[in-house]
Amino acid sequence: MSKDSQMRAVINQKLIEMGERERLKELLRAKLIECGWRDQLKAHCKEVIKEKGLENVTVEDLVAGITPKGRALVPDSVKKELLQRIRAFLAQHAT
Fold it and tell me: With a threshold of 0.85, does the pTM exceed it?
């Protein structure tokens, strides 16, 4: 495992242990709904299903097709806020 992977695993474990990961997920969920991201992605799903036909789309196909767009649609402000919260958490709980 690379040093970067190890660091991510340690940070993730600390976030889980302290309950911060769930708080961050709730914040992210609320922010994405607030900015309309969820509605945009839902509309994109409907477009993909309409194009391919309901009978010809699997869940895996749908996820593979919408994931890149979903990531691209997350506003930079939301990404920045989440990153700031993670950095603040790590600074507060550094060992």
Answer: no
At which residue do the structure tokens 């993670």 appear?
Answer: 86
Closest of 32, 44, 42, 15 to residue 77, by C-alpha: 32
Nearest to 21 by CA among 39, 8, 38, 35: 8
- Length of the chain measured in residues: 95
What is the sign of the dihedral through the CA atoms of 10, 19, 73 and 81?
negative
The whole-angstrom separation of Cα 76 and Cα 12 is 22
Residue 44's contacts (CB-CB under 8 Å, 6 or more residues apart) are 66, 69, 70
User: What percent of the chain is predicted at pLDDT more than 70?
Assistant: 99
